[in-house]
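Notes, Module 5: Reading structure tokens.

Key idea: the token line is not a picture. It is a compressed description, and you learn to read it the same way you learned to read a sequence, by spotting repeated patterns. We will look at two proteins. The first is printed below with its tokens.
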Amino acid sequence: MNSSAFNIVRIPELRKKLLLTLGLLLVYRVGFHVPLPGVNIEALQDAADQSGALGQIFGILSAVTGSRLGSAMLFSLGVMPYISASIIFSLLTKVVPSLEKLSKEGASGQRKINQYTRLATVAICFVQSFFVIGYLAGSGGSALVDPSIASWPYYLGVMVALTASTLFIMWLGEQITEHGIGNGISIIIMAGIIATVPTALVRHFRSQLDSTEQFQQMLLYAVSWVLIILGIVFITKGQRRIPIQQAKLTRGTAAQTGQRHFFPFKVNSAGVMPIIFASALMIVPSLLEGMGLGWFHNFRQQDSFWYIVLFSTLIIFFAFFWVQMMFQPTEIANNLREYGSFIPGIRPGKKTADYLGFVISRVTLAGSVFLCIVAVLPNFVTSGIGLGANSTFAYFLGGTSILIVVEVALDMVEKLNAHLVMRNYEGFMDDSSGNKQQRGTGGVTSPGWGRRSRSE
């Protein structure tokens, strides 16, 4: 491990990518400490402490997306508008024939969908910034903006500034993706989550270090974190390997035995996207209740039965939806037949597609149940050990934020490992992970049959 870290510094290209990524993340974090002009920071803090259930939901969204909803900072919207736009167009590509056709046109079609997503992001930014204006204009009966400048030109300027800042964050993410290491948007979300942890820890333990009992509680938290991280890594790296046999080749009088490979399908192929999408939609019941629809009250209380049911249902739905977009069993089966490969004991064609669909559905169900456990665990942690209103700490302790951080960190390690191995350096991970392709029988490959790539 030490030699691998030293090798990163020795490779100029990799060192440049790493420094660029860190530099852009620094710029991103600076924007969260730039307040909007004319805002009373002390009054804003008091309003945040008394914001009730809606403020707790803002805290949840901030914990799982790295944004700072409910604050009055320049980058307070974060990447939430982009995530919302991605949800919308992910759904539309399945129900609108023209968009579905466009999504199947390869890289050019994906670029057009990305353009539509950016336009939708701008519209969503204006809508969300309008709610921020309402929050600043009168939260809890007291205005948070200096009355001498509070006017429609000022509020319009705030809307433009918040929208431009979100577009700038998207640009930072694209630069990290193209010139840095890893997926830019995911790394930005991870950086935002990590930045909220110290404040949450200090807030929770500020007055709890004066007794042996509280020290034991801190030790219990630390052990719980380690166990949760180990469980997340185990599930994240877990695979269901489907055996793939190549047909026997005959050249003249010589027969060559076909190679045997595996199609690795991750237990949690959807990653953290179902939780992020579901968390973004869970703000809707609070908005509907604010419009006078009191029936939605039970759907916004985090410890209520209906909240947990709705949240879990959305996670399972988005898990299956995301996997369906990434993997097409019929397309995989057709490609296997074209390459002269087959699954032992399964007839090529429709039988293979049905078998793949059955396996993928079972594995996806297991992964989605795991995501549900991780997502609803903070509700029991909050009520069980009395974290109170400190929802950010609860959601990091419970596993949602840890899941995002671990997933993104593992992805970055894999990309760093690929760079090192490509240059004949020792990587962070050895061959025991089963990710390297081997010659002959028993090799493990991921040929990408029927797997769709999705770019930010």
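Here is the second protein, with the sequence above and the tokens below, as before.
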Amino acid sequence: MSNGASATYTQSPVTRKKWRGRSYVSLLLFIIATLLTPIAVIGHWGHETIANPEQYIDTVGPLAEDPEIQQAVSETVSDAIIEKVDTSQVASGLVGVIVPNEALSNLLSGPIKAGIDGLIRGAVDKFVTSDAFQEAWIRINELAQKGFIAALTGDPTGPVQFVGDELVLDISSLLQEVQTSLVDEGIDIAGLVTIPDSDAQVVLLDSPELAQARAIYSLTSPFLAVILLITAGLFMVSVLLATRRARTTVAVGITVVTWSLTLQYLLGRAEEGFVNSFAGSLFENAAAAFYNQLLTYLLLAVQGLLLLGAVVIVLGWFCGSTGLASTVRGSIDKGLVEIGQRLPAALAAIGRPMREYAPFVRWGLLVIWLVTVFAFGSVTLERTLGWTALLLGVLTIAQILMHAPDDSAPEHRPSDALPSSTT
């Protein structure tokens, strides 16, 4: 145990009681942050991906080019149009005019109906592979995103609605787009169909958990934008209050790594349940593609947190009092001191206040890094790696400046050295 730690236990009972109180608070905050971590990760993803219109479109937009999505949309729209057109009645009426014989008319109406259905399906297939479908897909998903958020907040006017345990999407606007395309392709009969403003509905999901999701969203939506930052802040305060900060820092890193690996595993298992929820529907084959695309940013966030946890573990070890950590820290500090002493004396004006307030400088930079990583944009592997590298670079520069030549300063100050902590 270091001298600082020993001093803690040789102080008065009042002081020891104060440290024990801080330890209890630190432990409590650590437990709360640990429990909040998975909720914060998923909540942050939901806010950034689903509640954010631009991010949502960036996420689902590429699905318009996925063959399975195109096939699912084509089948859904074709079936809806064929039902609206009532090709059986059209074929029977057409044959009845040409062939008065009822038996012969019934015999011919079947192949003619199949031919009309084939024309419609062929035209719809052509439409879903066109640029027009790409544009329609974006417009429909913009409406669907707004409708989904409206449905979660209880607004009954959007294209996405909760009907009992079902999540239903109105595809009237898509039918109108396809209807125009069919008429342009020469299938004039499609133009005779009147599509109401809100009539064609497709069940997206049927699960009793949807009502729970709606209730959870209504309670947590005000905090989703900052819940990840709050969780990270709780971990940081827990470290600040801990009597053994290095160990607590390592524990935070292990917790983050453990939750990251657990979430990766659970997301893989959840895909099976998600796909099964579409079993028997026209979107059964497209469900996996939709799931993987929609959760892209969540997976990236989990990877980013995995990297972050590893960095925190290394940081905690580096600041610890083990023999190897002390040796490594001493070697690095010696090198930074040598570099700092070669700096122009004019830089002492910058280095002196930084040296005097070294702990505040370091913790201030950590807070800025924390806010930048978790409060602005999605947490991804690239962003986490980039901002962490920048933080380490700035900390290194600050440490060098603290050792700039300064005739007015003592030759050695405890705060000059790289931070260390008890284990």
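Summary for the second protein:
- The mean pLDDT is 74.
- Strands lie at 160-163, 166-170, 201-206.
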